[in-house]
């Protein structure tokens, strides 16, 4: 599938007994499975891997593919620092 080649797979994770399974939500057919000694381990790993980082999208973006997103995030952080608000800015002492 072209979208997976350009944007990367969008894996979803689930557990079936002691086996963790994953598949691409875009429907390209990519996926796999890994057995664990206990069902609780499979459930724990599937839950940990099955999340989407919308807050970190610009910070950990691929360098070339999402370069405009990196620039936008850097510009927002620069403006926030100049205004004295935002992450990484400590308020002046009182």
Structural key phrases:
3-stranded antiparallel sheet, 3 helices, single chain, alpha+beta, 36% helix, 94 residues
Written account of the structure:
The mean pLDDT is 81. The protein has 94 residues and is of the alpha+beta class. The protein has a 3-stranded antiparallel sheet with strand order 1-2-3, with helices on one face. The chain is elongated and about 50 Å long. It folds into 2 domains: 1-52, no CATH class; 53-86, no CATH class. It is 36% helix and 18% strand. It is built from 3 helices and 3 strands.
Which strand order does the major sheet show? 1-2-3
- What coarse outline follows from CA principal-axis ratios? elongated
Which residue ranges are poorly predicted, with pLDDT under 50 across at least 5 consecutive positions? none
Content of β-strand? 15-25%
- What is the count of distinct domains? 2
The total of helices stands at 3
Order of helices and strands: HEEEHH
Q: State the secondary-structure class.
A: alpha+beta
Cα(first) to Cα(last) distance is 57 Å
Q: Using DSSP, what is the number of strands?
A: 3
For the biggest sheet, the summary is: 3 strands, antiparallel
> Helical proportion?
25-40%
Average pLDDT confidence is 81
Rg over alpha carbons: 19 Å
Question: TL;DR?
Answer:
This protein has 94 residues and is of the alpha+beta class. Helix content is 36%, strand content 18%.
How do the helices and strands line up, and which of them pair or pack?
Elements: H1 2-7, E1 11-16, E2 19-24, E3 31-35, H2 39-49, H3 67-83
Antiparallel strand pairs: 1-2, 2-3
């Amino acid at each position: 599938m072209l979208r997976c080649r350009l944007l990367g797979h969008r894996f979803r994770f689930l557990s079936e007994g002691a086996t963790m399974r994953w598949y691409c939500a875009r429907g390209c057919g990519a996926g796999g499975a890994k057995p664990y000694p206990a069902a609780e381990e499979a459930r724990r790993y599937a839950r940990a891997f099955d999340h989407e980082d919308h807050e970190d999208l610009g910070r950990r973006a691929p360098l070339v593919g999402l370069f405009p997103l990196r620039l936008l995030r850097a510009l927002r952080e620069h403006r926030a620092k100049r205004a004295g608000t935002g992450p990484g800015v400590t308020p002046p002492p009182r």
